[in-house]
Amino acid sequence: MKFASYLVVLGLLTVVDAAPPAATRVPLGRTIDLNIGETVDLELADKSRAIVKVVDYTVTRDRLRDAVRGVDVQVLVNGLPVTLGCGNYHLPVSIGGVQIDCPMAKPISGNSGADTWGLQKDVRLRLWPIASPLVEPDTLSYPLRQKWFATATQMANEPTYVDGGEDPQRKKIYYHNDLDFGGCEGLTEVVASTDGILVSVANRILPGYEDTPAGARYDTAYILDDRGWYHRYLHLVAFEPGLEPGGRVKRGQKLGLLGKEGDSGGWSHLHYGIVSRQPSGRWGTEESYAYVWEAYRREYQPKLLAVARPHLFVTTGETFTLDATKSASADGTALRYEWTFYDGAKSDLPRVDRRYRQAGEYSEILKVTDARGNVAYDFAIILVVDPALSGHLPPAIHPTYWPTLGIKPGDPVTFKVRTFGTTHSEEVWNFGDGTPVTKTKSDGNVNEMAKDGYAVTTHRFERAGTYIVTVEREDVSGHKAVGRLAVEVGVP
Description:
Elements: H1 3-9, E1 30-34, E2 39-43, E3 49-61, E4 68-77, E5 80-85, E6 93-95, E7 98-105, E8 123-129, E9 153-155, E10 158-159, E11 175-176, E12 179-182, E13 189-191, E14 196-201, E15 204-205, E16 221-224, E17 230-234, E18 236-239, E19 248-249, E20 254-258, E21 269-277, E22 283-285, H2 289-300, E23 304-305, E24 312-315, E25 320-323, E26 328-329, E27 335-340, E28 346-347, E29 351-354, E30 360-370, E31 375-385, E32 396-402, E33 412-420, E34 427-430, E35 438-440, E36 455-460, E37 465-474, E38 480-489
Parallel strand pairs: 24-31, 30-38
Antiparallel strand pairs: 1-8, 2-3, 3-4, 4-5, 6-7, 7-8, 9-12, 10-11, 12-21, 13-20, 14-15, 14-16, 14-19, 16-17, 17-21, 18-20, 21-22, 23-26, 25-29, 27-28, 27-30, 30-31, 32-33, 33-36, 34-35, 34-37, 37-38
């Protein structure tokens, strides 16, 4: 008797065959892999057609690790030219009567030592009809009960950095093909982003799935949806009771609590991603940043979202550009931008050039305002290294808080923080409301899995408003790591 059938007899599962079922839903997007100079005539989901040609691409690398920080792909869509940013928080653009994006380009995997995409040609493109959602509205949800960009993220092609892993001596780059959502350890809820079969959970996997992307690990769950996509959830510290391999889960159902288990690097986050069959015939990443952006906006209906990411990795004295143009309002109105920098300088430009003379990790404030007066905040994280210090890295810091939604004046808010790369000094908190500073001392990530690795404090905000919370810690050389949070209290 098959394992799943045995559990059905015992009344532990709904009836689910142990072998992977065939997909019953066709995705709305069409994925194509092309070489430079190659053209394809493609039929979209609404039977319209698009003629697409990849003309060329340009690659931007940093001077410290030779890591790819951006790929701009020049494409012709129905005869119209467009340049697509590849991954790194870019969303699909509308051109030539279609929506199109570029989730991956070959140079990104060149020095990573891994192929998680199944890309055998130069560029991967995805296309949707011009007025189509990216996924059907009733089939995908945001995988956390948490505010958008509540804390640090590592998404799509972004090199990992939160745990202090941006080391100039490390030339093999881990580009984060999936999505890392930072959150508050043991408090932030992880939910199923889709209806589907729970293929694995907490070291248990359904037999018959050995040749699929699913795997079994103590901190991990995989869900198979009706498109044949495998949704994976990593680093959970606890799972909801009653979850069993072979059971069906519903979109929005609680799976467990976010943590730092497994190979997290010691920072608390949900590693979420989708794996699907790619044009090469291989399993590969189904880049999902645009999908969760769409799902979050549909579920939570924010009037405005600010985006100051990805993070930047630069040397002292190097000029670089901060970019706020990935921000967007719900109604598409023009935005006003205001940058506030650690040294007190300000700028109202969407793109602004900066440089730093002192090594450290900086968190610069972006405030975005739409035509209706709605305001949103995000933070640009810049890790600045002094080449003269023989590879010495400044510390990094990861602050979190909970809850992130529905906070009322007087409510207790839990704040947690972990500093990486130093055990010197303490974290100093400024809650932005005029109250005295608070000090904590996390463990410096000496033991990644330490249960008390994050330092904890509680704060109450007495009035409604959006508070910019700042926490800093310095190493023995005086290099600072600065983290920020935008906490909304009584804000509808």
